[in-house]
């Protein structure tokens, strides 16, 4: 009788433990489901473009030619700007770098609705082929020439020669400055021949070869001509020795 009662008690205890474990498991499952629902609801809310749009723009950088309006117009070309969670920063950065004056763009998002844009502008070194600009690294870019705030040398050459022509100007212009002159235009034509136009209007025909020697010959001639230099239209230095001088017509 006693053994029977003990067996029944053990069965009741085991059944009670099973029920407790089952209840605990159900409660844990309910908690997981609730957390999952909350997480899904939160993520859906954060990705909803109508609830959390990126609506504020902060422009940073030492800028002369790029404005907040330029950046807004660039972003406006996208089909849409997403939310803090959904918008791809690389897409915004790529669009910002398409602005003509922008050399580099760095973009980050700030919770909950702000885009911070840090831009570096091209530094103008020259006007290239009359209608584009050249930066200090020899990169051609399509900035608006009409808004450039100072005078720059005008460089001309074939499409793949920008770095070469810029390097030649940087090499030779300091020598001209020692005698009070500046190169206002430097031309490398399709035949790879060089031409220099000085700021006093004299045109120098240099040719393809011996640039250093021919430019040095100009300086010898320049010092000898004295005041007559004002009457010179061009100097052709494409000779082994000497030069041909073209004079302005005498005026009454």
UniProtKB/TrEMBL annotation:
The keyword Acetylation does not apply. Keywords: Cell cycle, Cell division, Cell inner membrane, Cell membrane, Membrane, Transmembrane, Transmembrane helix. Pfam families: FtsQ_DivIB_C, POTRA_1. InterPro entries: Cell_div_FtsQ/DivIB_C, FtsQ, FtsQ_C_sf, POTRA, POTRA_FtsQ_type. The keyword Cell cycle applies. It is a single-pass type II membrane protein. One of its GO terms (biological process) is FtsZ-dependent cytokinesis. The chain crosses the membrane at residues 21-47. Part of a complex composed of FtsB, FtsL and FtsQ. Belongs to the FtsQ/DivIB family. FtsQ subfamily. Essential cell division protein. May link together the upstream cell division proteins, which are predominantly cytoplasmic, with the downstream cell division proteins, which are predominantly periplasmic. May control correct divisome assembly. This is Cell division protein FtsQ. The lineage of its organism: Bacteria, Pseudomonadati, Pseudomonadota, Gammaproteobacteria, Vibrionales. The gene is ftsQ.
């Amino acid at each position: 009788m006693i053994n029977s009662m003990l067996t029944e008690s053990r069965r009741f205890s085991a059944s009670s433990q099973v029920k407790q474990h089952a209840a605990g498991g159900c409660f844990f499952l309910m908690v997981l489901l609730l957390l999952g629902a909350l997480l899904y609801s939160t993520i859906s809310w954060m990705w909803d473009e109508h609830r959390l749009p990126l609506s504020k723009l902060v422009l940073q950088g030492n800028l002369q030619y790029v404005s907040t309006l330029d950046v807004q117009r660039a972003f406006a070309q996208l089909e849409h700007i997403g939310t803090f969670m959904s918008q791809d920063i690389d897409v915004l950065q790529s669009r910002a770098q398409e602005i003509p004056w922008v050399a580099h763009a760095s973009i980050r998002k700030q919770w909950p609705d702000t885009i911070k844009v840090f831009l570096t502008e091209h530094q103008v070194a020259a006007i290239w082929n009359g209608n584009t600009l050249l930066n200090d690294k020899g990169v051609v870019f399509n900035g608006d020439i009409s808004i450039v705030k100072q005078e720059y040398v005008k460089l001309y050459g074939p499409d793949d020669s920008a770095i070469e022509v810029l390097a030649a100007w940087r090499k030779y212009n300091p020598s001209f400055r020692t005698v009070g002159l500046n190169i206002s235009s430097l031309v490398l034509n399709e035949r790879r021949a060089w031409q220099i136009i000085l700021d006093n209007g004299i045109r120098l025909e240099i040719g393809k070869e011996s640039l250093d020697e021919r430019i040095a010959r100009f300086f010898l001639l320049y010092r000898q001509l004295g005041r007559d230099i004002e009457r010179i239209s061009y100097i052709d230095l494409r000779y082994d020795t000497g030069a041909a001088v073209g004079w302005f017509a005498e005026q009454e």
